[in-house]
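Quick start: what a row looks like.
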Amino acid sequence: MIANEQVITVEKAKQLDDYKLELLFNDQTRQVVDFFPFLSSSLNPLITKYLDTKEFSRFEINEGDLEWNDFDLCFPIADLYENRITP
C-alpha cells in the first residue's frame, strides 16, 4: 500500500434536479450522478420509495458517505466517484 494514498470521501452534495446530484469529493473531483436509472429499475420497495422526490431530496453526508435515512440507502464511494451506480 502506498503511504500517501488518500481516502476519498464526499464533501458536498447538491441536488440539480429530481434525481441528479452534483457531488464534490475531498480531492476536489466533481461528479454529476443521475440516480434515476438505478431507482427506476429496482424491484425492491425499500429502494423504489426514493422515486418520491421528497424522499430522495432527504439525502445527507454522514462522515464522508452519501446516505438516506440513516443508511437505508447508500452507495459505495468508489462507485459514486467513478459515476457508475448500476442496478
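That is the whole record. The chain is about 20% helix and 30% strand. The chain has a mean pLDDT of 94.
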